[in-house]
Design goal:
By secondary structure, this protein is α+β, with helices and mostly antiparallel strands. It has helices at residues 2-21, 148-155; strands spanning 30-36, 40-42, 45-59, 62-73, 86-93, 99-105, 125-126, 133-134, 160-168, 173-176. 16% of the residues lie in helices and 39% in strands. Strand 9 and strand 10 form a beta hairpin. The N and C termini lie far apart (39 Å).
Length: 177
């Protein structure tokens, strides 16, 4: 009986703690960052630490997605990441079905120098519902977006951002946790 009671308490604690970390961007802003810290080589660009920050919210009944990048290069004033082409996806969910928020591309995020200072995202604005959620990630022409109705349902339900996936133009994937 004692083992059974411990099991029930552990399951209840896990359910409560999981629910307390899930957030709903339609109610309040969801923000955070994920980091890849073991070094990345993108062609001739050496990145020692890469962090992607994100902020999700609502404006005029439309979703807003903001992403930003800071990185530390091999050389303190390196600008090589600014020449790379990539897409950013936020892996979300509370279940086993993969879902991603499209968080922008190198065309939208102005990457700073490699001295670990944030760049900027001058195009942060509302996103069309039918260009928000996808079940796959990859280069732009291979992304299949969910319908506006499905995206609204996912967005208006609490979720957590599990990882950030950065996908290069050549299809290389880097997972930031």
């Amino acid at each position: 009986m004692n083992r059974f009671l411990k099991l029930i308490v552990m399951i209840a604690f896990a359910a409560i703690s999981h629910a307390s970390f899930a957030q709903n961007p339609s109610i309040s802003t969801v923000e955070g960052s994920k980091t890849f810290g073991s070094g990345i080589n993108l062609d001739s660009c050496r990145i020692n630490i890469l962090t992607v920050g994100y902020k999700l919210g609502m404006a005029n009944s439309q979703p807003t997605v903001y992403s930003n990048i800071k990185w530390k290069g091999k050389d303190i004033n390196s600008t090589c990441l600014g020449n790379e082409k990539f897409e950013i996806f936020l892996s979300i969910g509370n279940d086993t079905t993969a879902k991603y928020i499209y968080a922008g591309s190198s065309g939208a995020v102005v990457v700073g120098a490699g001295n670990y200072e944030w760049g900027n995202h001058p195009y942060s604005a509302t996103v069309s519902w039918d260009r928000l959620i996808t079940r796959n990630f990859g280069i732009s022409n291979a992304i299949h977006f969910a319908s506006a109705e499905e995206a609204r349902a996912i967005w208006n339900h609490s979720f957590i951002v599990k990882t950030v996936k950065l996908v290069t133009e050549k299809g290389r994937v880097f997972i930031l946790k």
